[in-house]
Amino acid sequence: MSQVETSRNNQDNQDRTGTGPDDEVVRLPMPSDGPLDPPAAWERLRARCPVATVELPSGDRATFVSRYDDVRALLSDPRFSRPRAGDDTARLSADGSGGVAADASPEYTLAIPETGEPHLRWRRQVGRYFTAKRMAALRPGMARIAESLLDDMIERGQPADLKAALGFPLPVYVICDLLGAPAEDRDRFSHWSDAFLNVSRFSKEETGAAFTEFARYMSDLVAAKRAAPGDDLLSMLIVESTALPEAERLTDAELLATGMGLLVAGHETTANMIGKMAALLLADRSRWEQLLADPSLVRTAVEEVLRFDANLGGFGMRRYLSEDVDLDGELLPGGTTVFCGMSSANRDDRVFTSPAEMDLTRSPNPHLTFGAGPHSCLGQALARTELQVVLDVLLRKLPTLELAVPVDELRKVEGLLVGGLREVPVRW
Predict the structure, then answer these.
(1) Ramachandran quadrant class, 128 (left: phi over 0; alpha: psi -120 to 50; beta: rest)
(2) How many degrees, rounded to 5, is the angle at CA 399 between CA 394 and CA 400?
């Protein structure tokens, strides 16, 4: 039996397992009262049933882990990764319509290695392009794009949808420039990304067609970079890979998967986060006023928004247990699909003081929004830089910014693995 180490007082070992508080059936995604509110079930699960059996939209059962130490332990364990094709994984979508990120289907397989030395090799080669230093060099360009997009939004007049005007296009321009992909294809990227993350929005046929189109597009892009390398990430990976021993070079299949994965992660999640950041900071005007009074808080405010966001997605990060795991006294057998509730963990009062309060000065802030360990988000420095740039530019150019609708009228993104707001109506 394997051991995942966690540190916790013995009193926390009581009432750790079951289907949920009072044996309720806990279904994912869990409902919340408002578009920015956390599900009430999180607090109950952390207190009384931190290792809970949950039911997915497919009807399959899985395990949901809600406490910080448990979530961090599982995410940090190098043996476990996202489910792969061939794993006997709990399904999100009963009819097989789930996208690549939602259901590990042999039909939609990406060649990125998930575990062991192959994963470390891939991560070393790709990760060196996402260092904080490299991202800092991109900051002035990001700021110019953000300012231009806001100028266009202001010229069109108010009210405006901040997500459509800034939240969506900025990350697309940035990731396309990074990958060397034409930004004019952004509408196609958006559709492909949604299908990649589909849970219930698209049919199986629509998801499959989008994956095929996306893979063909990226295959053609990789071939073009191999024929005529530029100064983008894909070209640099191709050129520098040729100097490595053949066994360590990234294959075309790995390059294709890398491009697809980065394009989705590089714009979909950040676009959603930009909208949510603005909504969270404007929902309570005192937060915005605090930042206007002290713009030096932008960095800690971004980290607090990342911690406080209750709408990362309705499921959490999946892990497939390839062997038995003792999670602080609770045996999780091999073959279990576990959903690590990172947003719930980010509100665990065992780790965070007054976790239900947004403290823009909070430091340190060891939130788990980007995961932990060997599978933590490769692009987190890019995401942080974009969010900091956006907040800095918004405070400078639109100090009178406010939501144009009551908070409870904001509408959540539904049917996808990631969470966000459909629009963020604002005025100034």
Answers:
(1) alpha
(2) 120
